[in-house]
Specification:
By secondary structure, the protein is mostly helical. The protein has two domains: about 160 residues, Tetracycline Repressor, domain 2; about 130 residues. It is about 70% helix and about 0% strand. The protein contains 14 helices and no strands. The longest helix has 28 residues.
Length: about 300
């Protein structure tokens, strides 16, 4: 498959109303949806009505939002020159010059420090996992993002660490299937993002991200297809081992995966999975899938839920 160079002209940056607005934009609140993986162990362990664990899990979610925002700011400082070659990232507050880099650097490390202190205060194991999460993000920004395949594996590791952090909070051992499905799903999203960048930027891709010169659309399509198949099969095997009804939730997973694949190839999505997930007009089945998985997997606990509500 031949990649045609993009002829798009870089859009001019719009000045925000204030420094505060620019900073809030730089924190990338839309990407906080990724940290919902911290809550997954709470839901699937059947502790949704254990008030203490709910409070701790929500606090863990907030702490991961703080840590990830600090990591995003640091990464944007490191990538500010490269981001100016990307039509969307060129509008980010740091790349467009709306925020001074020295101020952002101080805020980034301040957020990471506050997040880690809070994580250790919440739970020792959670704090250790949060530390590894932050170190991986820093290592990614400082150079590992330029290592082909390793860059996407690090993205996947971040999602797995979110699940492990949530498991530490509720004191459960996560299923190997959950870890495997989380890793494969995040690899699918990571390779899809690289494909989006390669197609969008064309010959200018190398100027934005060095690692893109080591990828090709053909290779990424093969990786996306392989990881998609592995994700669906792994989830199907997980459902078979957890009751006769849960296998039907595979239909929702298939729809979600195929829908995202459609958006990648026909709507030029893939750059920001969170945005696609929240703005796609066919989003109800995306949400219905996880809800059905939760309801079926908890079995009798779901009946107890309805008794409490009604």
């Amino acid at each position: 498959m031949t990649v045609h160079p993009s002829e798009q002209v870089m859009p001019s940056a719009k000045k925000p109303a204030s420094l505060t607005v620019a900073l809030l934009t730089g924190l990338r609140p839309l990407d906080w949806i990724k940290n919902l993986f911290v809550l997954a162990p709470l839901l699937f362990s059947g502790h949704l009505f254990t008030s203490e664990l709910v409070s701790k899990s929500l606090l863990g979610f907030i702490l991961f939002c703080i840590l990830s925002s600090g990591a995003y700011l640091f990464n944007d400082v490191m990538d500010r020159e490269d981001d100016r070659h990307h039509p969307a990232k060129a509008l980010r507050p740091i790349a467009s010059g709306q925020l001074p880099t020295h101020l952002v650097s101080v805020i980034a490390f301040g957020l990471i420090l506050v997040g880690l202190i809070g994580a250790f205060a919440l739970d020792l194991r959670f704090g250790l996992i949060a530390s590894v999460f932050s170190l991986l993000h820093l290592a990614y920004s400082l150079g590992l993002k330029d290592w082909v395949i390793v860059d996407v594996l690090l993205i996947a590791a971040g999602f797995v660490l979110r699940v492990l952090g949530g498991s530490a909070i509720v004191d459960v051992i996560p299923s190997a299937w959950i870890i495997l499905c989380t890793m494969l799903l995040s690899l699918f999203l990571g390779f899809s993002k690289r494909r989006h960048e390669l197609v969008l930027l064309g010959e200018r891709a190398n100027a934005h991200r060095k690692v893109l010169q080591q990828y090709s659309v053909t290779f990424l399509d093969q990786m996306i297809g392989a990881v998609l198949a592995a994700t669906v099969v792994s989830y199907a095997l997980y459902t078979i081992n957890n009751g006769p009804l849960q296998i039907y939730s595979v239909f929702f997973v298939l729809y979600g995966m195929f829908r995202y694949l459609y958006l990648i190839h026909h709507r030029e999505h893939g750059g920001r999975a969170a945005e696609s997930f929240l703005t796609d007009p066919f989003w109800p089945p995306w949400w219905a899938g996880p809800c059905s998985c939760y309801g079926i997997s908890t079995g009798g606990y779901s009946l107890d839920l309805f008794r409490r509500l009604f």
